[in-house]
Structure formats: structure tokens, C-alpha cells
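The material for today's practical consists of a large collection of protein records. Getting from the letters to the C-alpha cells is the skill we practise here. To make this concrete, we reproduce a full record directly below:
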Amino acid sequence: MAVRIFDLTEPQSSRLTVLEPVPVRRRDLRRSKQRWAIVAIVSLLTPFVAALVVLGVAH
């Protein structure tokens, strides 16, 4: 269970400000890496697919 440190210096504050973020879990890191890997692959393949479409239409 994660413990967070809150800023309690303002007594009238309706929202608590987190001073220390919760550590990132391995599962979250893996998902983030997978998402960025998919974005990278799609961004690399997009120009080639577009070129094939243009060549197919022009031919």
C-alpha cells in the first residue's frame, strides 16, 4: 500500500497537494513502453504505406 505525503500547511485548503508522487509500478512501465513502441512502429510505417498507395494509384 502506497503512502503519500500531503501539504497540510494551508488549513483552509479544500484540495490536498501531493508532495511526493507514488512510485510507478512495473506493469505501468511495461504498458507505457508497449504504447510507445506501437506509436514508433506506426510512425515509421506510415510513410511507406502512403508511398505504396500513391504508387498504386499512379500506376
Remarks:
- Strands lie at 6-7, 17-18.
- DSSP finds one helix and two strands in the chain.
- The longest strand covers residues 6-7.
